[in-house]
Amino acid sequence: MEYAIGADIGGTKIQVAAVDREGCVICRHLVPTEAHLGPGQVMEKVLTGVELTLSRLPGDAGIAGIGIGSAGQIDFASGTVAFAGDQLPGWTGTSIKSRVEERFGLPAYVDNDVNVVAVAEQLYGAGRGLDSFLCVALGTGIGGAIVEAGRIVRGAQGCAGELGHVSVDFNGPRCDNCGNNGCVELYASGSGIARLGRELIAESAEPPVWRPDSREIAQAWLRGDPQAARVMDVAIRALAAAIAGYIHMCNPQAVIVGGGVSETGPSFLEALDREVRVRTSPSVRSAYRLLPAYVGNDAGVIGAAAQVWLYSDGQ
Ligand SMILES: [Zn+2]
User: Fold this and answer.
1) From ligand 1's centre to the CA of 181, what distance in Å?
2) How far does the centroid of ligand 1 lie from the alpha carbon of residue 172, in Å?
């Protein structure tokens, strides 16, 4: 039996797993990132996690390679971190690929965490059989990954697909992360929905029954709470405007949405789809489908490992 090792490096946890060709996780190792302790110890945790995972596999297991997904912007060709923000302090400049290849003598592939989720969806999930789609990852922020002609679009420096920083209001509040105004992330991410919730609380005579937390607000919206509906309406229209812009630019077959409030159930995606269709011209609208992400919580580590199958087969 042949396996690939996947490692998913996030701001709060590092997960390493052995994954088979069908995308099944065989064994896993999960540790807190403790990013404040510095990039050296983050790298050490990744290397130790790979070592432990390899030691748990049967002696006759074949290892095809090691795939890594990391938060931040990654230069795929060199496997180096081009930029990582506060989530992973000091991580910028880390040569992940060369460190892993030197230590284990196996081929390694490194990409950013949303691009590897797109790989998981392409091989095992909602993107199967599709050549052209956008993956949207809702979370504290909003990430995006573009697949065109069956391949991840990386752009000049590996930074393509930053849907979160598409502006949906040029007069909107300033985005501290990029400098633009009215980025969709300010409205439809977890932190954006919480911000809208705080604004509503500040201006309401009657305080809402929910706290300014995106999942609480989404749950209250599903129960028919009118104040939560005001917040979610803004979030859904903002996200739909950004997705509609992408659809007009790239004419994709699908937009795959996962994470954050999209996990509250089909109502969110149905409302989002209705709003996207209102905002797109018939020619591009007819080609597109809005799909829920399929692979789930393990998508990061499964997609990280799946790079080995995708790229070692000659892509
Ligand atoms: Zn921005």
Assistant:
1) 7
2) 11
> What percent of the chain has a predicted confidence (pLDDT) above 70?
99
The pLDDT tens digits of the residues spanning 176-234 come to: 989 999 999 999 999 999 999 999 999 999 999 999 999 999 999 999 999 999 999 99
Q: What is the distance between the alpha carbons of residues 66 and 311, in angstroms, rounded to a whole number?
A: 11
One domain for residues 168 and 98:
no
Q: How far is the CA of 158 from the centre of ligand 1 (A)?
A: 17
Ligand 1 center to residue 94 CA distance, Å?
25
Residue length, the chain?
Answer: 315
Three-point CA angle 285, 286, 290, nearest 5°: 65
Q: Are residues 302 and 271 in the same domain?
A: no
Give Dmax over CA atoms of the chain in angstroms: 68
3-state secondary structure 40-95: HHHHHHHHHHHHHHHHHCCCCCEEEEEEEEECCEEECCCCEEEECCCCCCCCCCCE
Rounded to whole angstroms, the Cα distance separating 264 from 99 reads 39
Output the pTM of the full model: 0.93
pLDDT tens digits for 75-113? 999 999 999 988 899 999 999 999 999 999 999 999 999
Number of other CB atoms surrounding residue 205 within 10 Å: 4
**Which candidate, 42, 163, 47, places its Cα nearest to that of 93?**
42
Tell how far the Cα of 244 is from the centroid of ligand 1, in angstroms. Answer: 18
Question: In terms of residue numbers, what domain contains 252?
Answer: 129-292
* pLDDT over 80 at 314, yes or no: no
Question: Are 237 and 302 members of one domain?
Answer: no
- Do residues 175 and 243 share a domain? yes
Tokens of 58: 């049967």
**Distance, CA 195 to ligand 1 centroid (Å)?**
15
